[in-house]
Every structure is written in C-alpha cells, then in structure tokens.
Amino acid sequence: MTVYVQLLNLACGALLLTAVLVLWRRELSIIIRVFAAQGVALAVLVAILASHEGSAELWLVAAGVLLLRAGALPVLLHRALVVGEQRREARPLVNVAASLLAAAALTLLAHGMSQPLIALAPSPATRAIPVAIAVVLIGFFVLVTRRHALSQLVGFLLLDNGITAAGFLTTSGAGLIVELGVSLDVLFAVLVLHILISRMREAFGDTDLDELRELRD
What is the pLDDT of residue 175? Predict the structure, then answer.
C-alpha cells in the first residue's frame, strides 16, 4: 500500500470518526470543536489529492477549505453560544446508543450504495466514496433528530462536508471557482441561520425547539 493510499485512508477515517463523535456528544461547544476537526480532516484530504495530482489550484482550495470550515464557520457557531443559555442537547429524538447504531447502519448503507460508482472508475480515491456518503447520511440524521437549532445547523454543515468530500473523491479535485462559489454559498447560509438563531433567542429566550413548541402550545 502506497503512502498516498495510507494518507487518503487516514483522512477519510478522520472524516467519518468526527461525524460519529458529533452523534456521541451532546455538549454544544464540544460538537463545534469536533466539527472544526472535521474541517481540518477535509482540508487534509484535499491537500493529499493536490499533492498526488500536482495541482497548485487544489492546494489553494485546501487552504480555503481550512480557513472556512475549520476557522470561520466554527467561530460563527461559537458566537451563537451565549452565557446562560442551555449549552447541551438535552432531549434528542434518538438517544446516544441508538444514534451510534444508526451511524453504523448508515455507514453500511453508504457502502452498498456506492459500489456502482466505484465500479465505474476504480481508484484509491473512488474507493473512499463510501466514507463521504456515510458522512452525508449521518449529517442528515443529525439534522432530523437533534432538537437544538445549533445542533441542526452542525448537521447541515456535516452534510455539506460529506457532499464536498464526495465531489473531490469522484473528480480527483474540483475547480477553484466552483469550490469558492459553493463555500461562499455555505458561508452565506450559515450567516443567515446565525441571524435567525439570534432573533429566536431575543424573542423567546432559547433556541431549543421543544421549548419553543411549548411556548406555541
């Protein structure tokens, strides 16, 4: 096994591990740190592809991914946490043990779903596609099972990280302009959601969806 394949497997393993850790932990500050770590893993993945392809453009994309997904986005998420608010996901729809079992099942599902894609063009990069699809599925699972608005936002960002990783693995890289456009769209969406969370907190004093439902009732 070449060094390239080993590094690629390590980066993809870190992507999947961080997604599972988001399901395991309930403290919002730790969830944000884990998301930042996943941003680092994604940047490392792009850097490995850049080194293998000898692409200066991909090196620029790796730097941009690191700054946005391991820097700017986690900072915005941390700013959404305020002193005095509940800083823990208290009542998810699915408990931790069941969530981890679901993550295992989703990973197996991703492996089965991706086999036709791998068969089209077998390579070390395409063989890692199941990990990217698993991150997408786990991100969607976080999005629909967590009750805190910030946790749901992290789920959305996990989903986006998985889609981004799949794009890089299937195409051995993406154009700088394409990645810049996607990243700016994600940043814009997070800024809008950050403003929405702030308005919810000002109006209702909390961002837990169950608490807001009780206020409505």
Answer: 54
